[in-house]
Here is the input.
Amino acid sequence: MNKEAGLLFPISSLPNKYGVGDFGKEAYQLIDKMAEAHLRCWQILPLNPLGYGNSPYQPLSSQAGDEIYICLDNLVEEGLLNKEEVTYFHSDLPFVAYQEVRKVKEELYLKAFSRFKETDDYHNFLKENQWVHAYALFKVFKKQNQQKAWIEWEDEYKYYNQEKSFSLIPFIKDISYEMFLQYYFFKQWKALKDYANSKNIQIIGDMPIYVGLDSVDVWMNQESFLLEEDGTPSFVAGVPPDYFSKYGQRWGNPIYDWDYLKDNHFQFWVERMNAANQMYDVVRIDHFRAFDTYWKIPESETTAIIGEWIEAPGYQLFDTLLEKIPQLSVLAEDLGDLRNEVYELRDHYSLKGMYVFQFHYQNDFDFDKVIVYTGTHDNDTLVGWLDTLSQEEYKTLEKILEDYKEKEDFQKIIHYCLDLDAHQVIIPVWDMMGSDSSCRFNVPGKIGSPNWEYRLTSFDEFDSYLEVYKNMIESSHRKEEL
Here is the structure.
């Protein structure tokens, strides 16, 4: 079967001296460590500009990158910063203090920009990525409107795309700064991805199915969404009451106008998926089920309890995407209580789905069709989850794991997952390290701190747990060969 093991490790969680993980030397070190441990997949979370509550699932753009991941040391190497100018931010904090980190890094980005000379490579980047100018405009207009959401902007900015009522000459420098940031984001990311690929490690990226209301996507493509005349959403996305929340989850993202998209050959989605396909080797689409049916909540509702399931043109969309982007590789996040049609859609295009141990350990599965996980970024850590089990559930788990001799239950579960008949097994870093619930990355339905903030302060402890994981992988490979 040639099983591949991997790691779910958000870029922001990498240790370094800048208070947030970035595309610097620690990312390269992680790749080296993964290669040494026989890991073949590095799964990350969306790299788009973080939106409300620092959530990567409410991005300001579905194509731009968040400049917070730009490595300052690299800018020093390119002569845009002097080493003595670079300041650090509490590298010993076990969480990301986003606001403070951004303040420190932005001062340095501005200094680097003041020394930047445009090159042919820069101009080619802008030519090949037409969306960059629109995103830069969006960011500049947000600053002009006190960072408010675009639906609250002054009319001349809000309707600029339709009316072009003023000159952009006063904003040229600010627009150029934002384009400079995107250039260096993608320059550094491409180098990092190329390095991972050279080590035989594929990058599994992540894409939220919906875009944020306060995004350049919606501002520039209002006809692609169900909006009122003033830009506010008529309906919003979410899911009804489920495992995570008795009130459901009201995400607040605007709903697509699928009729309009269909009439326009799904151009918005083609451009979006093409950009993701260039960034990653595999694109995991969060909430894949909404390509089959989606939960449509009236904007006036404060919870997700009231809504209706609406069918989406999933087959027509994927026929178009695969015709336009034949090399596209998609992983379908197909978790939850789904109707059979979701799996039929997934299987029609031979897409892999997900098996999550915390949800599925008592269920039968066709492991040819899934990637195996102990948990996702939305689950409690394995150790935290184990603490919630009833005595009866724990006895069932003990029986399943009785052949495994590891001292810790979380490590028995990891080894068990590696021995399943799936082609790929991916373990979140907090599960590999046996972290407790204080290290949970996200609690769905809750906004703000401590969601999305978990990070390592060094690789020291990580290295010892990675060695254990490596030994499990080697053991699993030996079993395969027998």
